[in-house]
Amino acid sequence: MELLRIEDLSKSFGAIKVADGVNLTVKEGEALGIIGPNGAGKTSLFNLISGSLRPDSGSVHFIGKNITALSMENRCRAGMGRTFQIPRSFCQMTVLENCLVAATAGGRKSETQSYLRCAEILDQMRLIKKANVLAGNLSLLERKALEVARALSSSPRLLLLDEIAGGLTDAEAGELVKMIKLVHQGGTTILWIEHIVHALMAVATRLMVVNFGAMVMEGDPAEVMQSSLVKRIYMGMEAA
Question: Which one is predicted more confidently, 145 or 108?
Answer without folding.
Answer: 145
